[in-house]
Amino acid sequence: LVGDAGDGCYIVRRGVVKASVIAKDGQERLLAVLGPGALIGELALIDDEPRSATISAMRDCRLLHLPKSSFFRLADEHPMVYRQALRILAQRLRGTNDTVVALGTITVAGRVARAFAALANGLGDELPNGSILLNHKISQTDTAGMAGVARENASRAINELIREGIISRDKSLYVIANPEELLDMATI
Questions:
Q1: What angle do CA 177, 182, 183 make, to 5 degrees?
Q2: What is the Cα 21 distance to its own chain's centre?
Q3: How crowded is the C-beta side of 150, counted as CA atoms within 13 Å?
Q4: In this model, does residue 104 exceed pLDDT 90?
Q5: 39 contacts: CB under 8 Å, gap ≥ 6
Q6: pLDDT tens figures, 15-53
Q7: pLDDT of 154-179, one tens digit each?
Q8: What CA–CA distance (Å, rounded) separates 144 from 37?
Q9: Are 174 and 155 in contact (CB under 8 A)?
Q10: Whole-prediction pTM value?
Q11: Is 126 helix (H, G, I), strand (E, B) or coil?
Q12: 33-65: b or e for each residue (b if 16 or more CB lie within 10 Å)?
């Protein structure tokens, strides 16, 4: 949970988790969706500060907990662990940089497209026709939080993406009907 001490890190072995924070307005803001192989809890592990986000399972998960002492003992014995941890942190920083740039240069629909693209990485199941089913119920508030826009603006952008045939709905789930066009819209 946000604010907890970092007693170690976790590796997602199976399943999908979300990283989120609660904003001042009481709304949950979805920061990331992470799947198998993801390292979580590494910031608090490395900088000894409290956890910066709450991690919650979105699908049944199996996590490997690596206590802080074990992580550093392993990394000291195998310096490639440090390199991999740095690589993960660099990738996340690049993603954050891209998000900051997107906030000032991409349309609201483009930012919502970026959110759907990120969700597809963790929750997406490719269908035989090439479309991608987001196999978890995603709210407009989740999408808005990831896109950095108001929920009402996210709703309008989602409706625009549906009208353009880029995404669709299958009952309560979203389908990325045209992944290439979605990625094109999402690109900075």
A1: 130
A2: 12
A3: 3
A4: no
A5: 9, 10, 11, 85, 88
A6: 999 999 988 888 788 888 898 989 999 988 888 899 999
A7: 999 999 999 999 999 999 999 999 99
A8: 26
A9: no
A10: 0.81
A11: strand
A12: bbbeebbbbbbbbbeeeebebbbeebeebebee
